[in-house]
Recover the amino acids of this structure.
């Protein structure tokens, strides 16, 4: 079968790979009808999320039709239409039972303390073959699949595989109260869904920080208040727009691959941070292309801590790799901030989000900006990686 395969930093290819097969009685094989390209995939392609094993099939977002089930999968049958949550959980350990599916004791083959497993990720996550493929093996399929009603389209369902639940999780752990002002850093697809999620969870105002005009316009269409970090200092703008206080909650939906400001106060270093970043930012090892962590916190986390109100909360759902060890902890401590972060517990949220979309409670398709055929996936990666205008979220139709 055809699949998008990681061969090295900057080197992904459409290859012929072996067909997946049932390996455990709790497995299922799903024929993928729609997959997607995520910003997290770009972390692996760029090398900022290290530990990828050559030959790994990429992709952690998938919608499809069940083709085969193992003997212990009692709740699904061939022909069922499903969405596949991105992170993998067994459903029976104490963490899964408490809703922490992303910290499952059993899913990660590297051991109970190894952390999150997800499809198409680095060796530390288990190197599970991903969903940018014609078919995929889903472990723990009785819990790792969620059925789809006919009134939820593939285009809607692919957004519920990862980015909508990740954003919902980010708003949830931010502990948004009715009337709160929430700032969202990054208006990529997760950031746009964070705007939607914050509104549904009670936010009175949402500020949206980004440097790409088309994404800021999408945020404005969702009635967020855009802040272009290429035109103004985002920290100063967040504070000014909130009467000198700062937003009650900040959601970092950016992660390690934040794009630096090209111009304006944030680029020239008027707040002091851009100069610091230029001196110690992460770089790439020229010998093997691996990521070398710098000593500075990310720009997004710095802006979040600087901008949020005293005694506020910062929620981090943008992806940061384990080698990153720096964070503005002193500033956060001295502002009495609450910090919550992590990988989304997808299976906790996906069923309810499917119901919300099916009922018409939320309209989510505006976040999806591009649909491509499977054979065009590599070209789609190139456009998405360049942050070209209009390339916010890309779905890939497999069949």
């Amino acid at each position: 079968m055809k699949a998008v395969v990681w061969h090295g930093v900057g080197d992904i290819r459409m290859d012929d790979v072996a067909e997946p097969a049932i390996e455990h009685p709790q497995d299922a094989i799903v024929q993928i009808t729609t997959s997607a390209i995520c910003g997290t995939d770009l972390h692996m392609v760029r090398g900022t999320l290290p530990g990828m094993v050559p030959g790994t099939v990429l992709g952690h977002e998938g919608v499809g039709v069940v083709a085969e089930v193992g003997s212990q999968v009692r709740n699904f049958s061939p022909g069922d239409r499903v969405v596949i949550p991105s992170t993998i959980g067994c459903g029976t350990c104490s963490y899964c039972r408490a809703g922490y599916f992303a910290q499952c004791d059993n899913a990660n083959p590297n051991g109970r303390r190894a952390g999150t497993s997800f499809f198409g990720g680095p060796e530390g996550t288990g190197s599970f073959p991903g969903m940018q493929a014609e078919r995929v093996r889903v472990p723990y399929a009785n819990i790792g699949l969620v059925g789809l009603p006919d009134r939820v389209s593939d285009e809607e369902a692919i957004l519920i595989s990862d980015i909508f639940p990740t954003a919902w999780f980010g708003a949830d752990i931010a502990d948004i109260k009715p009337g709160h002002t929430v700032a969202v850093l990054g208006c990529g697809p997760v950031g746009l869904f964070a705007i939607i999620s914050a509104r549904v969870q009670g936010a009175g105002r949402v500020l949206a920080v980004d440097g790409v005009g088309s994404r800021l316009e999408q945020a404005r269409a969702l009635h967020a208040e855009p802040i272009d970090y290429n035109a103004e200092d985002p920290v100063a703008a967040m504070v000014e727009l909130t009467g000198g206080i700062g937003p009650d909650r900040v959601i970092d939906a950016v992660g390690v691959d934040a794009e630096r400001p090209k111009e304006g106060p944030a680029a020239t270093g008027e707040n002091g941070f851009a100069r610091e970043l230029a001196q110690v930012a992460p770089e790439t090892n020229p010998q093997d292309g691996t990521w070398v962590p710098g000593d500075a916190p990310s720009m997004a986390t710095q802006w979040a801590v600087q901008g949020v109100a005293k005694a506020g909360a910062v929620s981090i759902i943008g992806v940061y790799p384990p080698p990153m060890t720096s964070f503005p902890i002193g500033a956060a401590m001295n502002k009495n901030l609450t910090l919550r972060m992590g990988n989304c517990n997808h299976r906790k949220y996906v069923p309810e989000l499917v119901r919300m979309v099916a009922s018409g409670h939320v309209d989510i398709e505006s976040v999806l900006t591009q649909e491509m055929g499977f054979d065009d996936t590599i070209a789609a990666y190139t456009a998405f990686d360049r942050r070209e205008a209009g390339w916010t979220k890309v779905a890939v139709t497999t069949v």
Observations:
- The chain has 14 helices and 18 strands.
- The chain has a mean pLDDT of 89.
- The chain has two domains: 2-162+344-397, 167-341.
- The first strand starts at residue 2 and ends at 8.
